[in-house]
UniProtKB/TrEMBL annotation:
Family, per entry: Belongs to the CENP-W/WIP1 family.
UniProt main location, coarse: nucleus
UniProt keyword Nucleus, yes or no: yes
Name of the protein in its database record: Transcription factor CBF/NF-Y/archaeal histone domain-containing protein
Intracellular or extracellular location(s): Chromosome, Centromere, Kinetochore; Nucleus
Gene3D superfamilies: Histone, subunit A (1.10.20.10)
GO cellular component: kinetochore; nucleoplasm
The UniProt record lists the keyword Nucleus: yes
MF-aspect GO terms: DNA binding; protein heterodimerization activity
Family matches, as InterPro entries: CENP-W (IPR028847), CENP-W/WIP1 (IPR052484), Histone-fold (IPR009072)
Keywords carried by this UniProt record: Centromere, Chromosome, Kinetochore, Nucleus
Gene Ontology annotations of biological process type: chromosome segregation; kinetochore assembly; mitotic cell cycle
Amino acid sequence: MAPTKRAYPRATLRKILKAHTNKNISRHTDALIYLDYILFIQKLMDNATRKAKEVGEKKVLAKDVRKVTLGTLREFRG
């Protein structure tokens, strides 16, 4: 059976996590953190899209993302 391609660079993510936390990381923690990151980005874009439509824009601009970033961060605080 051929090996499957990883959805994210696991070794790179583990190095980043270890460098920023100075703690050992259990085996599947990096996958959970990556999934949380993906959910955050998806929610951020949903909120930015909603904000852009309220203003009447056809495209999501950087200013729309900036306006909803703080609120999205508060939702994921925990």
